[in-house]
What does this fold into?
Amino acid sequence: MAAEAVRTERPCAMMRRAAESARRDIKRRRDEIFRLRSEIGHLRGQPDPDQKAIAALEQRVESLAAQLKQDELSLDTLEQVISENC
It folds into this structure.
């Protein structure tokens, strides 16, 4: 039944649902970046900081930030399409 509802869903509704999902993904990614930066700060505050762990976390933050930027651009494009067509 749920699969049938998806097949009959109108394009604008599908795009709005996709935009909402993208917003949730963006929020999760931002939260993860915040958490990792906090962890990096905590590690740096240690008497003998683990530089390898810090570097690995910084690399992960960079990767997430790049993904976040792409997700935000995609969402912006989708929201423009929705506002122009729905």
Notes: The longest helix spans residues 51-85.
